[in-house]
Amino acid sequence: MGKVILKTFTLADIPSDGLANRYADPHGYLATNTDAWVNLLRDNPNSEPTDLVMLLALDEQEDGSSSVIGRLGVHATSWSIDGKEHRIHEMDGFFLDESRRQTGAGAMIILHAIARCKTMLACGGPSADAQKLYKAAGMKEIGPLKRWVYFRSGRPVARKVLKSETLANLFAFPIGLAARAVYTLRGARAKPKLEYKPVDRFDSRIDAIVATSRQSLFPRGSRVLNWALAHRRIKAFEIFDRGTLIGYALLKRSILDATQHGLGSVCVGALLDYFIADADAGRKKDLALFVMRHFESDRGDGDLASERGLVEVIEIQVFDPEFDAILKGMGLVHAGGLRVLFRPPPGTAFDDRTPWFFTHASGDMLLMRP
Fold first, then answer.
1. pLDDT of 329-347, one tens digit each?
2. Could you tell me the residue range of the domain that residue 289 belongs to?
3. CA 263 to CA 122: how far, in whole Å?
């Protein structure tokens, strides 16, 4: 092992073709940092040229050669509390060579990023060691989200119970049929009453609706939503109640490797993001019904693995006890959820009584790949 050095890149520093082929990268940490990644960074409506966007940890040898052993990407975003909006930053993929995790390299990366950005938001499934690191750097856990799962297909359950792909194929249909019977009895297959209109992009009417929130949240107005729609495969919907626009929803398909949980590789349809004005229990349940109904019939666009055929599992992640009770009552199963950690800007604060609203799309999850 050589000497660990940090190299930082602002938005202005990043070459137009990205970083993917500029360093020895044995772990492939920079594989997605191509020209498309640069375009995404530059299109971010919250970005400024001096923003930190990438921090690399390099193993530098005596002969001057170096290789990537860790990286942390960063995006500019915003946080709203008590009706006031603040500019903050969020993590976009933190990776570190496993052999370096006891050397202090991870702490060096995180502390440098926070010293530079002053704020940080992280959303995902960090290891216990990473959580300790984040909290030691002044980040506070404000989650977790709760993941609620609807099994549209019986195959993932059959894989887990029978531990055989052959048997899973044989028993997937009767297990799926039994699940649908339970969901029907619980009202999870009812028809939604609100109107969900598919859109290619959002206009400024959404901004006025999001601005009505008095919770602490990471607001996504039309500019941020359209940025995500331009760079990721997401289905967008405006929500209407008797002709009045009341919110939006983003739906996303992806392939999840759930082998460690005995489910195998699963095609998942998810409620990625939403906001509903005056979101009472009726409107929340209606949104859940729409998500289930959409993915019961949606067969994707056909050009990606995640876009071929019907999904096997539908997931809805929420941070809302009332919504939890609704989804549980509809027969969905609680299965973990993403953790959310946050360090607010200097001069601002929140405590355990702060009412939060956040969704699956918090942090860089808005930009998750298919």
1. 999 999 999 999 999 999 8
2. 146-337
3. 27
